[in-house]
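B., you asked whether I could sanity-check this one before it goes into the benchmark set. Here's the sequence:
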Amino acid sequence: MEKQDIVIECIFNTTRQEVWRAITQKERMQKWYFDLPEFRPEVGFKFTFFGGNPNDTQYKHVCKIIEAIPERKLKYSWEYEGYRGTSLVTFELFDEKDDTRLKLTHSGVDAFPQENDLSFHNFEAGWDYIINTSLKDFLET
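And here's what the prediction gave me:
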């Protein structure tokens, strides 16, 4: 399989500071992302959470912060307990006049078994929903 990154971009009608808070504060993340037991945007911080089809398999996500530049960039590793493969998730924030553009890149998805829930297509659809619907609704309503 040819290596591909998932790239999702969205412009939010709010400040970079507000988007940064939404992607780094546990209480806010729980409203649009996943229910994280703990989260700190600090290099080296490890966090886990469960996610997947609510009526089927739940996967334990194991992540570690690799880079955190306040109001600019957040990058972490993304693995699944019990499955091979490591990928990287990067959130980048840019000023766009009075708005903020978020660029999400998920690279290395091809490292996971390309079957069922872990397929490239499912990641792509999931991130599209998370960024363009869930986060957008959280920030703008």
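One thing to flag: The chain is about 25% helix and 40% strand. Otherwise nothing jumped out at me.
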